[in-house]
Amino acid sequence: MSDSKQGLLGLGSRGSAVADVRARLAALPQDELPELRGLVGPEVAADVFDEQLERAVRAFQQHRGLIVDGVVGVETFSAIDGARWALGDRILLYTPGHLLGGEDVVALQERLNTLGFGAGRVDGRFGPQTERAVRAFQRSYGLPGDGSVGPETLRAFEDLRRSVSGGSATTLREREQVRRSGHNLSGRTVVLDPGHGGDNTGATANGLVESSLVMDLARRIEGRLTAIGVSVVYTRTETTCPTEDERAAIANAAGADLVISLHCDSHDAADASGVATFFFGRDRRTSWSAVGEHFADLLLRELVARTGLPNCRSHGRSWTLLQQTRMPAVRVETGYLTHPSDAQRLAEPSFRDTIAEAVLIALQRLYLGDDDTATTGVLRLGDLRAFLAQHG
Q: How far apart, in Å, are the Cα atoms of 254 and each of 190, 234, 327?
């Protein structure tokens, strides 16, 4: 196999790009990831993507909250490249059109948020909101507010580090915004993100195509949402396949309240079955969407209760769409196309209607907050309308 196939490097790939990935991984701190040890040496074929390198890539992906497939695509390579930077290794500043990214920016954003200077979602990119937070911090500390993070600003952070600790102001604001926004869904904007699209069909098995199936599911969800006054924005059409960055940009431009990304899963193991949800979560201190986790949990429980599919749990991940959106975003895997029973049920329009109703009910329960006392899996749209009429 050559350097790259469709922009990917995986088991069996050869060439200078493989050697570059191997060298970058070998240069990272290995205390937390012993799989990175021994990647380079006189007896190692540096330009061959062998099983040892695949294990190292998988370990890195797991550690960073990426999709664990052992393949180096754009997102994994970007994470590997950004992992080499620690806060203080370079001067950080906002450069429109070419945003600096890496673990040093993650550390900066986490520190700013902990100190109460709102850098927003910890996305590892030095954008305009991060620059504004740096300027505000600099002014409060008596430094020139130039928005760049150099030696003086780093010393100020270090001085405060010994005396200031706490949770994320961003997380608290996210929760409070939901609490204050009221029960009613009418007037809100929800972004529906049917996975894949265009020539990228996603998983195909048992006569089903993921991109077509999730678009049909999105239409069913859209119908229910628009019926109660929710504005729906799509990240793609039937024929397009935007990148994850482009999908996040669409959601941000729409000023949406929530993003729901729809997928189906597949696996070589024929018995793999069930539903899972994912939210933005690198850790539970600052790089975490508390509202996203809550909605992911609500959605998972509704789906399991209504469909009887196995519970594959809810997971925190730092995937691009989850991380780059300024609002809570949740990805749902609605079953395995490679599992005969899952596929048979997903092929039925009535089953997709059941999934669509679970999404709607979970979304409404998110905004009911403390007033939500219903048992999971039993609410119907008519019940919600009656409740909202009573408490409106």
A: 9, 10, 11
Integer CA distances (angstroms), 282 to 77, 184, 317, in order: 18, 31, 6
Neighbours of 137 (CB within 10 A): 24
Q: How far apart are CA 265 and CA 49, in angstroms?
A: 26
pLDDT score at 183: 74
Give the pLDDT score at 117. Answer: 86
Name the pairing type of β-strands 275-280 and 329-336. antiparallel
For residues 282 and 65, the answer to whether their CB atoms sit within 8 Å is: yes
**In the chain, how long is the greatest CA-to-CA distance?**
74
* Residue 330: closest CA among 275, 373, 273: 275
Distance CA 314, CA 13 (A): 33
Look up the pTM and report it: 0.71
Contact 193, 321 (CB under 8 A): yes
With H, G, I as helix, E, B as strand and everything else as coil, classify residue 72.
strand
* Alpha-helical regions (H) of the chain: 16-26, 51-64, 74-82, 103-114, 128-140, 151-161, 169-180, 210-227, 244-254, 290-307, 320-324, 340-346, 349-368, 381-391
**Structure tokens of 353?**
């209607």
Using alpha carbons, select from 69, 67, 98, 64 the residue that is nearest to residue 84.
Answer: 64
Q: Render pLDDT for 204-248 as a digit per residue (tens, 0 to 9).
A: 999 999 999 999 999 999 999 999 999 999 999 999 999 999 999
CA atoms within 13 A on the CB side of 79: 23
Query: Per mean pLDDT, which range of 92-101, 173-182, 256-265, 285-294 is the poorest?
Result: 173-182
Least confident of 115-119, 156-160, 189-193, 297-301: 156-160
Instruction: Decide: 14 and 3 in contact? Cβ < 8 Å.
Output: yes
Asked if 242 and 309 touch (Cβ cutoff 8 Å), the reply is: no
Overall size of the chain counted in residues:
392
Would you state the structure tokens that stand for residue 184, as one six-digit string? Answer: 């009613």
Q: Does 383 have pLDDT greater than 80?
A: no
Backbone angles phi, psi at 380, to 5 degrees: -125, 165
Q: Alpha-carbon distance 263 to 235, whole Å?
A: 13
The DSSP-derived string for 281-324 is BS-SSSSB-HHHHHHHHHHHHHHHHHH---EEEEEEE--HHHHH
